[in-house]
Write a structure and sequence with these properties.
Shape: globular
Strand order of the largest sheet: 3-2-1-4-6-5-7
Structural class: alpha/beta
Radius of gyration: 18 Å
Number of helices: 8
CATH architecture: Alpha-Beta Complex
Distance between the termini: 53 Å
Largest sheet: 7 strands, mixed
Strand content: 5-15%
Number of strands: 7
Helix content: 40-55%
CATH class: Alpha Beta
Length: 249
């Protein structure tokens, strides 16, 4: 299935760090899916990630300051203002670009403000998600449901929003906590959330920056927990004056 968005412009942002082996194939698959533009953010790679991405048809943005959120933010900043929808995907080949139309469809139909591609609701290749990733996702799911009353089954990087909504969220996280922060801010803002099943593959090359080994998995879990607690306090503090004002009336 190809994108059928009419006049709506869809841009895919891909944060990358040393993904020279899989990135060209990823870009080509997204081109086939029908995206209007692909922005690969080279987050200080020491391999040929940028050259491979350009050769496959992507626009490359350099962001030497390391950090998953830093790269995502640089990608959003590079999106042209006439863009309607921004989709995020990983550059390691684990996300399946042929599901891009399914992820974008609820936005173009006016049925959602935020769409999450849920790996846990799709078909996963054996070993494509580690136990650390699944447990971290379940912990985040529980916290989000308890605090905000919104149910997410995943923290998949495969997600999409309208550019205007994305830029008003106030994203600030510059680490691997970017995805969780986005879900928290979406829930706190009361935006309409839709999850769609997406398939998930084993990465096509390189080493995962989050879950390639136990140490990396534990580090990611700590960042997720710390991000949730910090942002929950920040969002609560930002809402408190309004709540007091309402009570005073």
């Amino acid at each position: 299935m190809l994108l059928a968005t009419g006049t709506q412009r869809v841009v895919v942002v891909i944060p990358c760090l040393n993904e020279g082996k899989p990135i060209a194939a990823v870009v080509r698959e997204i081109v086939v899916a029908g995206a209007d533009e692909i922005i690969v953010v080279d987050n200080g790679s020491t391999d040929d990630t940028a050259a491979q991405a350009i050769a496959a048809g992507a626009r490359v943005v350099s962001e030497p300051r390391r950090g998953y959120g830093q790269a995502c933010a640089a990608g959003v900043a590079a999106v042209s203002p006439e863009t309607d929808i921004v989709c995020f995907m990983d550059g390691d080949g684990s996300d399946v670009p042929s599901f891009l139309p399914s992820v974008v469809a609820p936005l173009t139909a006016g049925e959602a403000d935020f769409v999450m591609g849920s790996r846990l609701r799709g078909v996963r290749e054996p070993g494509s998600m580690t136990p650390q990733q699944i447990v971290a996702g379940k912990v985040a799911e529980l916290l989000l449901r308890l605090v905000y009353g919104v149910r997410f089954t995943d923290m998949s990087p495969f997600r999409a929003m309208r550019l205007g909504d994305l830029r008003t969220l106030g994203m600030s996280e510059r680490t691997f906590g970017w995805n969780l922060e986005m879900q928290m801010r979406v829930a706190a803002a009361g935006l309409r959330v839709v999850e769609v099943p997406v398939d998930h593959r084993c990465r096509r090359g390189g080493v995962s920056k989050v879950s390639g080994d136990l140490v990396a998995g534990l580090k990611a879990a700590w960042v997720i927990t710390r991000t949730f607690l910090r942002l929950a306090a920040t969002l609560r503090a930002a809402q408190r004056p309004a709540e007091i004002g309402e009570a005073a009336r």
